[in-house]
Amino acid sequence: MYKFYIALFLLADVLSSCKALADETLNVGVLIASKGQRAAYYQLATQFEQQHPSIRINYVVKGDRQYKNAMGVWLNQAQGLDVLYWQAGNRLNQFASQGLLEPLNELWREQNWQQHFPQGIQDTIRQNNTIYGLPFSYYQWGFYYKKSLFSRLKLKAPSSWGEFLAVCETLKSNGVIPIVVSGKDSWPVAAWFDYLNLRINGIAFHQQLMKGQIPYTDQRVRALFNTWKQLIDLGYFAPTIDNRNWQGALPYVYRDIAGMTLLGNFVEKHIAKVRSDDIAFFRFPQINVDMPLYEETPIEVFIIPKNAQHKQAAKQFLSFVGRPEVQEKLNQTLGYISPHLQAGKGSHYRPELGSKMIGNTNGLTQFFDRDTAALMSLDGIKIMSNFLTNVDVDITTQNLENVRLRAYPNANTTH
C-alpha cells in the first residue's frame, strides 16, 4: 500500500520528466483510487501528448476524500487547474450554479457530441440549457446472479416485483439465501434505497428528497422502507456478512450460497474468469407499473474550471477524450463503460440490457452519496445499513429526518 501511494504522487513527476520540451503545460486534476485508474490516466496522457506534442499533461493526483475537499479550493482560487475530473448530476450542478465552470455548448456543437451521447447522459451535465462537462465513463447498477443456479431451479430473470418475490421464495425454499448484501462497505446498501425510491416514487420525488426538500418521515419514504422491510422480514437478505466488503459478496453467488447481489458493473473486473460465463445480469425490477424505469448510472466527466489558465488547450484535451476510440481504450483499463455511442463497450458491458438502460430517456440518477449533501450521505448510509438488522421503519425514517434537518437547515420542504 505504501508503494502504491508513492507511485500516485510520482505520476506527475514521471510525466513532467518525459515531456520537458513541451510549449504548454495542461494541469489536470484526477481522482485516483487504484493502480488500474493510475495506469488508465497515464495511458490517456501518453496518447494525447503523442498527437499534441506541444502540450504536456501534468496530473495533480489525489485520493477520494482529499480530491473532493480540494475541489472547492481549486475552483475558487485566482488561478485554477485547467481540467478537472468530476461527477455528473447534483455534484456538477452545485458548482455550475455558482458560475465556477466554463460553459461547453460551443465545443459540443463543434464536435457534434449531441449526436453521439445518450440524451439521458446529456441531461445530467446540463443546467439551464448550458452544458458543463464531457462524459467519459459510466457504470450501471443491477442484479448479478448465477445462470446455472437459476436454470437448475427453473427460474428466469424477473422483470416485475411479483416475479422478483417469487424468485426469492424459490431460492429460499431450496436452501439458498436470495440476496447477499455487503456489510463492511455499507455504501452499496444505498443502491437499494435509491432503486426502491425510484421504482415506487419516481425520479422527481427522488431528486427533491436528495436536495433536502422532503422530510424522510414523509409517507412515500415510509412506503419504500416498508417494501424493503418485507424482503428482510421474509428472510431474503443474507445476515452473515457484516465483516465483508462488496467483493466478498461474490463468492456467495459463485457457491450457490446466495442467489443474487445488487452491484454496479465495476464488479465485472472482479468476477473470476472461470465464473464469468455463468454470471448474468438483470435490471432492478419494476414495482409501480405506472412508473417509468429510471436507472442508477454514476457518470464520470471532465470539466473546465472558469479560472482555468489554458482554456484552448483544455478544450483540445476534452475534444481528444470525446473520441470513441479514446474512450473505448480508456474504459477498458478503468473497467467502466464508454458513454460515447460509437465506442466499443468492451468486456465490462452487458449488451443484453445495457443499451436499454442507458439509452432510455426516462431519467438517470447518480448515487445517493453523489446526489445528496455530504452529511446526509455519510450518516444516511450508516442508518440504512443498520436498517438491515434493526428493521424499524419509524426509528429509521426519524433518524434520517434528524440528519436531514442538520444537513439542510435552510431547505424549503414540501409535502
β content, as a range? Answer: 5-15%
Class from helix and strand fractions: alpha/beta
- What is the total tally of β strands? 13
The main β sheet shows up as: 5 strands, mixed
Structure in words:
The protein is an alpha/beta fold. It has 18 helices and 13 strands. Helix content is 45%, strand content 14%. The strands form four sheets. Strands 2-1-3-12-6 form a five-stranded mixed beta sheet, with helices on both faces. The protein has a four-stranded mixed beta sheet with strand order 8-9-7-10. The protein has a two-stranded antiparallel sheet with strand order 4-5. α2 (35-51) links the parallel β1 and β2 (55-62). α1 (2-18) packs parallel to α2 (35-51).
Summarize it.
The protein is built from 18 helices and 13 strands. It has 415 residues and is α/β, with parallel strands linked by helices. About 2% of the residues have low confidence.
Set out the fold topology:
Blueprint: H1 2-18, E1 24-31, H2 35-51, E2 55-62, H3 64-76, E3 83-87, H4 90-96, H5 105-111, H6 119-123, E4 126-127, E5 130-131, E6 134-138, E7 141-146, H7 147-152, H8 161-173, E8 177-179, H9 189-201, H10 203-210, H11 219-233, H12 250-254, E9 258-264, E10 279-282, E11 295-296, E12 299-303, H13 311-321, H14 324-334, H15 354-359, E13 364-365, H16 368-371, H17 374-387, H18 393-407
Helix pairs in contact: 1-2, 2-14, 9-10, 9-11, 17-18
What would the keywords be for this entry?
18 helices, globular, 415 residues, alpha/beta, 14% strand, five-stranded mixed sheet, four-stranded mixed sheet
